[in-house]
Amino acid sequence: GRVASLSEGGVDCLSEDGETASISCNTQYCPEDCEGSWAEWQACDATCGGGMQFQYFQISSSAANGGAPCDYEHGDANSGRTCSTDSCPIDCEGSWGEWNSGCSASCGGGSTERTFAISTQAAFGGEECDFEDGDD
Q1: Which whole-number Å values give the CA distances from 121 to 89, 92, 94, 129, in the listed order?
Q2: Mean of pLDDT values over 62-85
Q3: What is the mean pLDDT of residues 66-77?
Q4: Residues 42, 45: Cα–Cα separation, whole Å
Q5: How far is CA 61 from CA 29, 58, 66, 132, in A?
Q6: Are 36 and 63 contacting, i.e. CB atoms less than 8 angstroms apart?
Q7: Are 128 and 92 in contact (CB under 8 A)?
Q8: Minimal CA–CA distance to 73: which of 88, 56, 51, 85?
């Protein structure tokens, strides 16, 4: 195959020498991986004596077109951490005993006594009892 030139009666070329043409290819969407992160720590479930608090996973962009999923589901909780570990205040507890059976006088007005007994001492900033152990 010899190509005839214009001077020999050939036909003009439709494209210039070196010109390029293109067509679309690989038109499918690109994979998008899931994106997410742990939210702020939630409030502690106790004010003293040791509680727990957790973070929850939040997905900001779901996986699409065959992208990798997140390691956690939206709303999953982490294993948590302890919080509010200070001891809770313990209020003093006590009570009055029975009145003594004897009276200080057989007539003309006497007195008898009873004793206050503390069963739980105040601790960690708890309320003190109004009376001391052994008061009468």
Answers
A1: 11, 5, 9, 8
A2: 96
A3: 96
A4: 9
A5: 16, 9, 13, 65
A6: no
A7: yes
A8: 56
Q: What is the dihedral of CA 125, 130, 134, 136, to 10 degrees?
A: 180
pLDDT average, residue stretch 5-9? 65
Return left, alpha or beta for 50; rule: phi > 0 is left, psi -120 to 50 is alpha, else beta.
left
DSSP state of 56: B
Residues pairing with 37 in the sheet: 58
Sign of CA dihedral 97, 102, 106, 111: negative
Distance spanning both ends of the chain, measured CA to CA: 131
CA distance 50 to 58: 27
User: What type of residue is 33?
Assistant: D
Give the strand pairing for 81-83 and 57-61.
Answer: unpaired
**Nearest CA to 118 among 109, 106, 131?**
131
pTM attached to this predicted model: 0.57
